[in-house]
């Protein structure tokens, strides 16, 4: 069974798509440099090599697309972690501020209570002394 189709058509069937202008130019360049005829058996090897070369040319694009996808997912995850950490830090800071505020209020109230106790004791001693003085001065 022979296939009398021109080389570019055979190559398109192998690729499963239309050839690009660059690919057609490469085929013609190889044909003219090597002096190949359309029925030369070397075409089979050259088309197979060209086919694999066209497949390998797609790898950088696929790798780049996958890397961009992974980078995007990583960035999204990192952003979510950063937001969560920031919210947790805010919550921890709010708890710490509330705790310090309670401690300061408690200490201030304690100091105030001590001051009022001292004032009360001074007033009490003064009243006691005044009462004692009044009682002692009437007795005399």
Description:
The N and C termini lie far apart (151 Å). With 140 residues, the protein is mainly alpha-helical. Helix content is 86%, strand content 0%. It has one domain (7-139). Helix 1 (7-15) runs parallel beside helix 3 (42-139). It has helices at residues 7-15, 21-34, 42-139. The mean pLDDT is 88.
SSE diagram, text form:
Layout: H1 7-15, H2 21-34, H3 42-139
Outline the biggest β-sheet.
none
Note the overall shape.
Answer: rod-shaped
User: What is the helix fraction of residues, given as a range?
Assistant: over 70%
| Approximate strand percentage | under 5%
Integer average pLDDT: 88
What string, H for helix and E for strand, traces the elements in order?
Answer: HHH
Question: Gyration radius, to the nearest Å?
Answer: 48 Å
Structural class: mainly alpha
For this structure, the quaternary state is: single chain
In short:
The chain is mainly alpha-helical and 140 residues long. Helix content is 86%, strand content 0%.
Entry keywords:
140 residues, mainly alpha, 3 helices, 0% strand, rod-shaped
């Amino acid at each position: 069974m022979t296939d009398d189709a021109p080389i570019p058509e055979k190559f398109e069937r192998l690729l499963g798509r239309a050839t690009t202008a660059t690919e057609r130019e490469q085929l013609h360049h190889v044909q003219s440099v090597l002096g190949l005829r359309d029925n030369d058996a070397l075409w089979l090897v050259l088309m197979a090599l060209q086919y694999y070369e066209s497949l390998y040319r797609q790898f950088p694009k696929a790798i780049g697309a996958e890397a961009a996808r992974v980078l995007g997912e990583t960035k999204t995850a990192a952003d979510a972690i950063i937001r969560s950490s920031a919210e947790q830090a805010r919550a921890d800071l709010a708890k710490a501020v509330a705790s310090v505020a309670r401690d300061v209020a408690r200490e201030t109230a304690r100091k105030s209570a001590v001051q009022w106790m001292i004032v009360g004791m001074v007033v009490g001693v003064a009243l006691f002394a005044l009462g004692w003085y009044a009682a002692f001065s009437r007795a005399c």
